[in-house]
Request: fold
Amino acid sequence: MRLPPSATTAGEWINRDQPLRFRFEGRDYAGCSGDTIASALAANGVKVLGRSFKYHRPRGLMSVANHDVNAVMQWGGTPNVRADAMPLVAGMDLTAVNTFGGGVDQDNARILGWLSRILPVGFYYKAFHTKSLFPLWEKVFRMATGLGKVDFSTPRLRTPKRYGFCDVLVVGAGLSGLSAALAAAEQGAAVVIVDENARLGGSTHGVSAGASELVALVAAHPKIRISADTYAAGYYTDHWVPLVERDRMTKMRAQAVVVATGGYEQPAVFRNNDLPGIMLASGAQRLIRRWSVRPAQRIVLLAANADAYLAAEDFLAAGIEIAAVIDLREDVPETQKSALAGRHIPVHAGDCILEAIPSANGKGVVGVRTQSGTIACDGVFVSVGWAPTAPLLYQAGTKMRYDDAVHQFVPEQLPAGVFACGRVNGIHTARALDGARAGSAAAAHCGFGVDQAITVPPETAHPTHPWPIVAHPQGKNFLDFDEDLQLADLENAIQEGFDNIELMKRYSTVGMGPSQGKHSNMNALRVLARCTASTPGEVGTTTARPFFHPVPMSHLAGRGFSPERRTPLHARHVAAGAVWMSAGVWQRPEYYAIAGQSRAQCIEGEVLAVRYGIGLIDVGTLGKLEIRGPQAAEFLERVYISKYAGLKVGMTRYAVMCDESGVVIDDGVVARLAADHFYFTTTTSSAALIYRELSRWNTIWKLDCGIVNLTGAMAAMNLAGPQAKAILVSLTDVDLSLPYLAVREGKVCGVPARLMRVGFVGEWGVEIHVPAEHGAAVWDALMAAGKSHGIRPFGVEAQRLLRLEKGHIIIGQDTDGLTTPGEAALDWAVKLDKHFFVGQRSLQAIARKPRHQQLVGFMLAAGYAGEAPKECHLVIEGGEIAGRVTSIAWSPALSRHIGLAYVRSDMTSVDRPFEIRLSNGSLVAARVAKTPFYDPENLRQKESS
Amino acid sequence: MPWRLLRFALSSKHPEPRMFTRHDTLKPTYDVVIIGAGGHGLAAAYYLARDHGITNICVLEKGYLGGGNTGRNTTIIRSNYLTPEGVKFYDESVRLWQDLSQDFDLNLFYSNRGHFTLAHTDAAMRTSRWRAEVNKHYGIESEVVGPEFVKKTAPMIDLACGGAPILGGLYHAPGAVARHDTVAWGYGRGADLRGVEIHQRTEVTGIDVVGGKVVGVQTSKGRIATTKVLCAVAGSTPRILKMIDVRSPLYIHPLQAMVSEPIKPWLDTILVSGSLHIYISQSSRGELVMGASLDPYEVQSTRSTLDFPEGLAAHMLDMFPFLSNVKVMRQWAGMADMTPDFAPIMGKTPVEGFYLDAGWGTWGFKATPVCGKTMSWTVANDRNHELITGFTLDRFRDYALTGEKGAASVGH
Reply:
């Protein structure tokens, strides 16, 4: 019920003047702006918010601190919305998740609760594995599992990300965090303070006198930036912390991090401790203080610390009747009890709740049974202890120890630049002072001011009970509410040999649910410690991995930039009707579509243009590197398998690169522009990788040379065909009688250009490299000049065929991850007699061994009209695999299918017949053929007159 | 409901014995010492005891049972490899997997889902065909399929994939997943029942070698005399090899993974995309289990990085835009012991009596049963099992590599 405005509600977070309508499970409700889903439902008296995962028991709120996994909801297409943390939005239509018929009120799967005796821990490992039946059982399991549903029509959300920087990042804006922020800022540090709640103040809710002053000081401080409704999702190396807001993620790089994340209040374990109406005292306080909701009329307060009695004041102020306080401690300090003075509230010291008594329909609590009797109530609030909110500390590599005085883990050794304060540091009383200490130290760590070295008195309160657990022969005393684990489940897991913390977690699944053990890990390790006669400190904790709270995929993915590179000629290809294919990060024209022509016709037209007229291809995607320096030649000698020291100025040479194991990884052309100046190319897909690798070698070898990556700075195109020279001659000042494989620097269309005489496609050709900004102009000029000769731009497919007719290999297609130069018929390029090159030692060893396979050319029978083999179809000899096809195509020039294939070394002689197996199993006859298939003497490309 | 669960209702006490006997002290001598109580080590112990009658074995584990890569992988089982050696080896493994739940009388949730390696480039399509043809040659179900088949099996997929359209891929019908931890427990319990001692939290500190032969093992609980040591410690292999002064070409890279919050199952198949560097399946808990390629640097640590979930989520949304609101719950990392040719290192070593099972990189889980089988045979007979002759350490010296790079699940 919503409390009427009063002194108690003075600090409420809701705006009563802005009502919001919403639906839950088909019923209409009204909440207020500022409500969470859970607070609005609680204000409407709705107690059952969901069903438990395994037994489908009705469940309500427990923590109201973003780990109430039993109150996750489906909101349209969004699954697993946490009702206790999600702000209410007008018009929300919500349902409980994972119910089976009748909604959250009915849920027919509740029958599983009655079967719980035969569903002990790990029951699914112990049955259902009859081979023929498992697939059926699996369907049942998959139907039963999971929480919310995805909606396939949800669009991709593009959530922005940004980078943030600060001196001191304070996580948590409770008493300790606020004090830390203030102390650090006072010393001059730029501070960012974040808190997952909508307002600052932490467990004080900003209402106690000291707290509201602190909040005001922090809010007004010029050195402090505040980010509320923001959680730190994890801690990564070097103070790298993702801060998740509702609609954005900030990746914060801090110089120091103060972890002031407080504690999770921990549930007590007794029979039926999961009934709606039973919740943590801090959760009830949040409902009262923040959202002015009275969660119950008459409660039993289960206590074991001073916090319980402080909370009782809030409960009384909200008009809640406290039927009794059941205190687990034998001796309750009189000072704590004084809060209840004059109220005639019985305090049962040394007692415990044996069980909660469910209402007739099981959806609420009507009383509790204690050692001394039965007490009627409609709510039980529990305040028996805390566990440190330490995931960030663990992720930072903090060494934690179990402190027997406060019965919790506390930091023993913090990494440099990481600080902890408040409850997470085991300080529950002097939290503000502890915060100031940490803030001062953090600022000093970043070089701001002097560490005040504040001394914080050791904690004297005993906020946490070491054993808030009551066994019950009939069970249903829940320890993990995500996974519906009862005390006996853990004891049984331990009995079965899963008696260390990691094994127990994995077998029982304790802590593996969406709340990741926030309310269950501490009690679980207490059970383990007791069962194995050890201490919690000896048992230790499991590894706390990111994320602190689950993070939406859209926040992680961000806007989703997929880098795509385009050459300077891109617009020209678009205009010419290019059909695109991706080549690494590049887009390249596969071919140029012509209306009324098929793909094959277009490609053949391009091929014929090169063979008999002129073709022009954009080769700007090739890696283009330049190396200069007295030892540039020496460097190239070391990274390529051929020799370059003797390469004449003005000439080019084919270049193959191997890795250290002698495997071919790249090829290109090296052009010598001067004695100490080379320009060279790499394959398109490996350009970035090769540049990185060469830079690495250059760093290691420390040769006197430097490498520059000009890939993006240069446009490049290959003009080829028997009539190519005729049109180029009028556009350049370079003497085109230059020999095959020569390189010249000059001008093309008035722009500085490098011209390389090449023969990759088997006709007279020249690669023209010009600065990127002039690429389009040169392309246009060439196309215009060639118009009367029928010039055609050609794409990757035509080039693949043209080079195949010449028997040239493509690295990555005609080689694989283990191909040596010898196998790829590149023996001629390997100069083993060089002083050194990468892969040389391996190639020397390989040269002494028999070669198993060899790349050869092959042809299908002339006139073969059946289904043609495809690349990677296997060569079969005697029923065994004897190789594979790497390239195959129909050659218009030869009027038959030609290709390259790996075959066994004994099968390489020209005209040797062999068989290729198609996907359907049939065999196609082929014969080894000499390469080049076309113009075997290479006369056409060498022609220079 | 299976009747066998009724015994839990009929008994007032939990009627289950310990799966693993607790041993506080080591014996002075064992016939075989196995280092590493992960899936591989325990499987070898199990088959040594069951098939070779050698039961005087101890398995030493620095941490806890199954706590290494056995409990950190993304649980995919397949045999669609690229080399004849690999295909035969993993095919045998899949065969063993299919009966393992019955062998153990423990439900491993071995679930045959079908496995797609999606291709977004013609180069990837070529590799798919290569793998399919080699697989079919050895009788393994793999086929090159087109985009329409992918769409039919997983209708919710966005074939456009954020600009890298799916052209088709390799479909491997036997592809499966299993509950990873259970595998270690099953082998551990089976070995324990046959007398094998499993010592958790027991670290190996040295290996005694005299005259090129193993004679003993130093541990944090004292020295053991033995003549046979099997090392199955994944990312810790270089440290152990240092103790016997044997070199290997292993390098350790972190491999990370993450899971979503549980959601109602919608994805029944296993999807891998080499171009997007991702793989995904949905577990029987409803969690999406997602992985990507190796971290590009050598680190001997299981720390997590932020750019991993960032990159993986971006690619995941390319394929499944509707996961935008699904939340990632947890990320973690394992240490992958990589070899230059992406095939493992198995069998005898230059030190007599020291057997190695390493180099499992990113593909060790699926090989667990066959590793146990072949390594136990190798240890028992002091001779390399025929299925592992392509995987010996000396292939690096001899330049006889077994190239499985093309069959790695994603481009590593």
Summary: The CA atoms of residues 859 and 898 of chain A lie 4 Å apart. Residues 297-384 of chain A form a domain with the FAD/NAD(P)-binding domain fold (CATH 3.50.50.60). Chain A touches chain B through 100 residues (CB under 8 Å).
